[in-house]
Amino acid sequence: MSEDPKSGHAPDKKGDAIRYVNLYESESKIYTRKVSGFYQKIRRYTGLPLILGFLLLPWFTIDGRPAVLFDLAARKFHILTLTFWPQDFMLLAWALIISAFTLFTVTVLLGRVWCGFTCPQTVWTLMFISVEHLCEGDRNKRIKLDKQPWNLEKVLRKSSKHFLWVVIAFITGATFIGYFTPIRELLLGFVPHRAESGLVYFDIHPVAAFWTLFFTGMTYLNAGWMREQVCKYMCPYARFQAVMYDRDTLAVYYDPKRGEKRGPRRPGDDYKKSGLGDCIDCSWCVQVCPVNIDIRDGLQYECINCGLCVDACNTVMDKMSYPRGLIRFTSEDELQTGKTRFFRPRLFGYCFAVLAMVSVFAYAIATRSPIGIDVIRDRGARLYRVMGNEIQNVYTVKINNMDSHDHVYDIEVEGDYPFELRNYHPKTVEAGEVFTLPVRVSVPRDQLKGEKNKLRFIVRAQDNESIHASETTVFMGPDVK
Predict the structure, then answer these.
(1) Structure pTM?
(2) According to CATH, what is the number of the domain 371-476?
(3) How far apart are CA 469 and CA 305, in angstroms?
(4) Cα 160–308–175 angle (5° rounding)?
(5) How far apart are CA 313 and CA 324, in angstroms?
(6) Residues with Cβ within 8 Å of residue 22, at least 6 apart in sequence
(7) Cys-Cys link to 429, which of 235, 298, 310, 435 (CB 3.0-4.6 A)?
């Protein structure tokens, strides 16, 4: 089979093209064209709230602490008014599962719109590209700038771009670490201090400094240099998205029935007589693509559904006085039959699953008690003790105060018999503390009628009766026959 030396493709028996890829060949740099339009505005309006929320949340305080703080050292996870502990790991697991199913639901309906509009990689890449446009100009100017020899203008433009990239990357890295350590102390640590001896030092923990600089470097690398490689080769979502697509999933498609045969023409020409379609083969759809694909080749896994090619094509169609929509958000069924089914069992199944999980998760959060209790019978001792006219059992009670405040806890016991605690006094348990204490429970010998009896421990905060927890265990006694 012979290969076309110009295109690098070899025709198969059906006339289609087989693409040969050199895995060791570095990809050429992508110069994206600046374009305006409906979907570009949506990307800005969806990205801006995410950026502002990311940057501002660590600065808000609630009860003297950051509104969102993942304090790994103290094993506390503060999210607004709630405080979570390692014991609440299942809630985190459920939150991740709900997020995954929500992503699946959106993908079934609208394809990879998460990737195109709200993915952090996309949002930060858009910021870096905007800086590139500001410092070096649009696509043609950047190509010309890279080809020209180094001079003062090129040095100034390149250095200003990379300086702004580093500033954005540092703000991003510092803000991210600000979710794990108070951001005010973190940033003050990067301010140089002068000691009495005259030496300059930085009052920041080496671990915090390392991770801040690490994420600064990764942001600079991912959004500035790797960009499309992250989406095409590193992101796992691109690999399994096809499993969630169906014939009615809305995605960016090129309409070949209307666009083919491609070819250039002048505005006003009767191109239909020449057998041409609406596509003038201007390649704008390729020039604006952040992952450098040609949407006219069909649906591809690299496509992130950002809609930039739609805006570019609509701009060209307006200039040529052609109808819009040659490239548009549509479905495979709509291209072939003219109809799209929005109401389908698969989509209903995903929606129902997400709604059910969100409801259960919200109920679990709303009814979550900030106290945990664990009762263990003392198996090292005898099953029971006979103390005069009483039968006693020994237990180890663990009280886990998962609240953000200290509490004094009372312990009560109840069951089918008049159980009583012996030598117990209310204990103060600090916030986040797991307090362990042995307790003895007794019952009059003549009133106990069974060998195994149900016993219930109740732990309640003195200052707030709504904070309570209970656990049921077994009280052992002599075999009564």
Answers:
(1) 0.77
(2) 2.60.40.10
(3) 49
(4) 45
(5) 8
(6) none
(7) 435
